[in-house]
Design a protein that fits this description.
With 411 residues, the chain is mostly helical. The protein is built from 18 helices and four strands. The chain has one domain (52-405). The longest helix is centred in the middle third of the chain and has 27 residues, at 140-166. It is globular.
């Protein structure tokens, strides 16, 4: 993790690569802002005190987790359950099972169909829980809670640095605050892998922008060993490699797109060897959770809701609103000055969520497509931003309270 904000340029301009802003003309960072044309420097990012910048995302994250902790405390008073008893829910149960018991050597069956098992859950997060538990003597549950909370902090630091790379400090603060209070961020207070994944992805995007190809590739590999959604990062790696080769003949840029999918591929290969089934993960997803890819699923969500908005289920309402929010955020992201690597990852991650039935764009899957949330934070300003972040914080509290007290809606 860098000890100070990354500078706004990849290096000084040279005689054969002149640029008024001190950047390479083919810089991977910048996109023309609507209405500015191809010329003109990016907005003034201003100086940042070395070392002290980290307090900003730290304070923002501490605020969001204080709200989340307060929510769990109030919920515990009502339900007479401790915080540990509340956070051990949903996917967190499966992550803990994987950390404690590992992955089955045979696909569990139920009524002639493949049943749900830890095979559906990628290995890096549960293995980290296991290693931390063995190293510290803490219980797997406590270790999982600590990893989720701490990786949430590193994720917010990564998001802040990412936005600060191309925008001013105020924009970085607004974007990070919205991400930290986004409804999907409730998972950072449960035993979930999103904090770890966003940490790898945010710093991976920064590495791509700085053309640190090996670092980006390793971070991409770690991300795809954490969640399959991170495969969207491969799109950013391929685009950056194409630009680097086409513009500067930097063939070493291929390291990033070669390494990134290896986390996903290694897990699939290990499952094949471990279970004897080359499609172990896919059939477990389909059999245990009825999860499958469908290009028509977003259309289905919209049609079902619009046909009879009053009769829809809670899940249908959440997916409809999530789809609309995703589309609006995607439009704002495209219209913003967000660097192309971040934009491509955000759009690709959202696309994966949109076509994943019956998952869809639930809050935590929009959260994984965090550059779209960043776009909302940087493009919405003034009173509209205050209303947006306030509503987002309220919905985060509702999502957290509902998730730890009900099994009606899969979060």
């Amino acid at each position: 993790m860098p000890s100070e904000p990354m500078p706004p340029a990849d290096g000084p301009a040279t005689a054969d690569r002149p640029d008024v802003a001190g950047r390479a003309p083919t810089d991977l960072l910048e996109r023309p802002h609507p209405g500015t044309g191809d010329g003109g420097p990016p907005p003034d990012r201003g100086p940042v005190r070395r070392g002290w910048w980290v307090l900003r995302p730290l304070v923002i994250y501490a605020l969001s987790r204080t709200i989340a902790l307060g929510t769990l405390a109030v919920s515990g008073i009502v339900t007479h359950r401790s915080i540990a008893q509340q956070v051990d829910r949903w996917d967190g149960v499966w992550f803990l099972r994987a950390a404690i018991h590992g992955w089955p050597a045979q696909l569990p069956m139920h009524d002639g169909h493949v049943a749900g098992s830890t095979i559906a859950f990628f290995p890096l997060f549960p293995l980290t829980i296991r290693w931390m538990s063995q190293l510290t003597g803490l219980s797997p549950l406590t270790s999982g809670m600590l990893i989720s909370e701490l990786s949430g902090l590193t994720a917010m630091i990564g998001v802040w640095l990412l936005v600060r790379r191309y925008a001013d400090q105020s924009s970085a603060d607004r974007a990070t605050l919205l991400v930290a209070l986004f409804p999907g961020s409730f998972v950072l207070s449960l035993v979930y892998s999103e904090g770890l994944a966003i940490t790898f992805l945010a710093f991976g995007l920064l590495a791509l922008m700085r053309r640190h190809w090996l670092v980006a590739g390793v971070l991409g590999l770690l991300a795809t060993a954490t969640t399959p959604v991170a495969l969207a990062f491969e799109v950013s790696c391929l685009w950056c490699a194409y630009r680097a080769i086409a513009d500067d003949r930097q063939w070493r840029s291929l390291v990033a797109p070669v390494l990134t999918p290896l986390g996903f591929g290694a897990y699939q290969a290990w499952l094949w060897w471990h279970t004897g089934n080359p499609a172990a993960w896919r059939v477990t997803e389909r059999g245990g959770w009825q999860s499958y890819p469908s290009l028509l699923y977003p259309v289905h969500i919209l049609v079902v809701f619009l046909r009879d908005p009053i009769a829809t289920t809670e899940t249908g309402d959440i997916l409809f609103v999530g789809t609309v929010v995703t589309v609006v955020a995607a439009v704002l992201a495209v219209r913003s000055r967000m660097p192309m690597p971040a934009l491509l990852y955000g759009l690709s991650a959202a696309a994966l969520g949109l076509v994943s039935a019956p998952i869809g764009m639930r809050p935590r899957f929009i959260f994984l497509a965090f550059p779209l949330v960043v776009a909302l934070g940087t493009e919405v300003k003034g009173r509209a931003y205050v209303a947006l972040v306030s509503l987002s914080g309220v919905l985060m509290v509702v999502a957290l309270a509902y998730s730890v007290n009900s099994f009606r809606v899969f979060p």
